[in-house]
Amino acid sequence: MERIGSVQVVITTYGFSIATANKDLRQAAIDAVFRWLDEVHPQETRTNATPVNVRHSANDAIFRVDVLEQDTKQAAARGTTATLIVSKNELYFDLRCTLRPMKPAVLPRRTIERPEARLNKLVLEIIKLFKVRDAEKIIDAQITIANDQMSGQSLAAFAEAPSRRLPIVIEVIVGKPAPITSTKTATLLAGIAHVAHVASHVADEAFNNLYGARVIGASWITVIWPRGAAPENFHQQDDDELVNHLIAASIASLATLVLAPPKKRANEQTRKAGTPAQSNSSTAQTQQETEELRRVNQELLEENAGLLENATLTDMLSAQKTEERDRAYSQLATFLSMEDDKSYLDRVSDAVAFAQKNLPNIIFHQRAISSANESHLMNGRRIYSNLVELNNLAARLQRGDFAPNVFNIYCNQQLSNFAASISGEAEHRYAQDYAIEWKGENVLAKPHIRCGDARIHFYHDTKTNEIVIAYVGRHLRDKSTN
Q1: pTM value?
Q2: pLDDT for the residue numbered 6
């Protein structure tokens, strides 16, 4: 994520736009957006931590839905904005996904992201609704098949059409066991590019002859850009680079949206009240003042938009703090109930079973459950207390409050009797005691918490920031073992 001075730069990671002359489709498009919103964020599940802002009025030319979701992996917020604008000549639909910082930090710049399935479903619905033509071809998510001379020539003529505005992805699939581009490719690029397969040598030859150059072939995938831009060839064995490249091009083509309605200009009211006998110099001065007011008004609109975004992000952070406080109150109530019932969670196995249900930020490996059941230890409440603290630290780690490489430092500060690793002798002589299978690999659960006779060993998956409880039970073998 970039910052320029104190201004946060929002990065667009996906973008798509389409326009139709049929302005009567406005309500149908609004209904489609609301269906998507209800599917992704039902009304009953919305919280302050996931703000949903809707601009909707029958008399407003602009309809807008903006959803902000926290990205726990990047300490940032992901925004999804759908906009409909009715202009004099057309109905314009704009959809874009953004990454917005939630704190002053340098974050990885992930500029391109493919739309999730539910968002892609909305794109397909809008495209089907609008029925827009690009150089006389309907924009859709279907693959065009050219398998004879006529269809090869038709594809070449479409590639050279001056009015075409979307690129064409062409793959010659003759002799290939399977195409590199597929229906999934066409779906992801819906509204961004056309996808075509050339399925015979005859069609391949017909295309190149009419186009006037050998731009397509079985050894590569060709993107033919509109407006006379030079074609590009992609030689990779999958479509990842191709799809990312075209989404990036779509983002670059998006118009800058100024969504706030302009305020009434004072000089326009003065001009209405004035007499038609104004001199030429007075008219020129009025025009200059109008342009200056427009410039100032635009600056104010941009400043207000930035303030609104910062306020939204502040609301999200406040909501997070509220949720943390509520969680702490709930944990306190649980501990108080333990004091009322002296037998409650005495056994380590009961504490682990209870933690599984109530601590969502840590994962319990099957070995942790079996070791707890086999231990017969009776200091369950102390075990649970430490698991609660570890769960809270895991939540902060996943939210991005601190970097993964300092997680053990925070554990040392918050957890009494914490050890970041095991002895070298334990690792070499008794490695199997500390090992678990995790996502197809054998890993060692070195960090541990001492709880009297019991130990809690866990593993930190630095790739996903998951905290996995690997073992809960009696002291494992180490250098002190005879």
Answers
A1: 0.57
A2: 40
